[in-house]
Amino acid sequence: MYTIEKKMNSELGNLKNEWCKWIRDEKRLSENTYLAYRRDLDSFFCFLSLYFNKKIDLSITKDIDNKTIRSWFFSKLENGAVPRSNARCLSSIKSFYNFLIKKKIIDYSPILNIKSPKFKSSLPRPLSMNQINKVLEFIIKNEKRWIAKRNLSIVLLMWGVGLRINEVLDLKLKDILDRNEIIVRGKGGKERILPIIEEIKNLLFMMLESMPVSIKKDDFIFLGEKGKRLHPTIVQKEIRNIRRLLNLPENTTPHSFRHTFATQLLENMVDLRSIQELLGHKSLSSTQKYTAVDSKRVKKIIEIYHPRSSKNL
């Protein structure tokens, strides 16, 4: 394994570290996306060092042209990369160059005009109501009292409100104090205010009351057993264990609950624009993929039609 620090000078290394801090703290990328972007940039710098056969510096990165990028893509394809991976890698590199522009280190880069490789997007795979009920029942029966409320709350926020796992774990006490709404911080730090049904809100406060520690308004509400913010990998591991024990399909992941939320709203006639706002999608095209799962037209709102609504209990 290469040591990337040996392949760049200190100035470029410092800029890379600043960029990492920028995408993590200001752009608020999810932990998985942040780590992937960082790996992509390291891989790019490693390629440049081999391509130019020397330690790279800022002057080299400034002068990168389309030919160099194409050579990088070809090298990745030779190593088994797929179009989806190359698309993300290009997004990572563009992010770094946008950061250089933001810092007024460069005025422009031809990299920013390169079109992303096309790839066939996979359709969302929602869970059935039977599968979701199995997960909920398992959590209630097989967890400690406080942990059960915590894990149940997490699943219900993903399925009943449509949150991403990182959005759930980023919730602070001050974000849930309004009885009818919660404040959610999505990708890029963009906030949205979402309605929350009474059943889920009550469960959140029951969880807080049963927690072994007290928290303040600016504290995260989902904690591990050591009292620190719960990490997404812990939730992923627990869902994976439940999937294995209940013999559920491979698509039973934290994100599948969010897929199910969107699909069920669409089935119950909620319009795409409303679903887009609820999910926090930047563009409608991200939401339109759910029409391939169910193409019914939309008319009603989340409280009336979502399965966790008190009107449907």
Can you walk through the features of this model?
With 313 residues, the chain is mainly alpha-helical. The chain has 2 domains: 110 residues, DNA polymerase, domain 1 (Orthogonal Bundle); 184 residues, hpI Integrase, Chain A. Helices cover 54% and strands 3% of the residues. The protein has a two-stranded antiparallel ribbon with strand order 1-2. A hairpin with a 5-residue loop joins strand 1 and strand 2. About 3% of the residues have low confidence.
Topology:
Elements: H1 10-26, H2 31-52, H3 58-62, H4 66-78, H5 83-102, H6 129-142, H7 145-160, H8 165-169, E1 181-185, E2 191-195, H9 198-210, H10 232-245, H11 254-267, H12 272-279, H13 284-288, H14 302-305
Antiparallel strand pairs: 1-2
Helix pairs in contact: 1-2, 1-5, 2-5, 6-7, 7-9, 7-11
Instruction: Give the beta-strand count.
Output: 2
Rounded to the nearest angstrom, the radius of gyration is 22 Å
In the CATH hierarchy, what is the class of the largest domain? Answer: Mainly Alpha
Residue windows where pLDDT falls under 50 for at least 5 positions: 293-301
Largest sheet: 2 strands, antiparallel
Shape: elongated
CATH architecture of the largest domain: Orthogonal Bundle
The CATH topology of the largest domain is given as hpI Integrase, Chain A
Q: Helical segment tally?
A: 14
Written as H for each helix and E for each strand, in order along the chain, the element string is: HHHHHHHHEEHHHHHH
Overall average pLDDT:
82
Q: What's the name of the CATH homologous superfamily of the largest domain?
A: Intergrase catalytic core
What structural category characterises the helix and strand content? Answer: mainly alpha
Strand content: under 5%
The number of distinct structural domains comes to 2
Q: Cα distance, first to last residue?
A: 55 Å
Helix content: 40-55%
Strand order of the largest sheet: 1-2
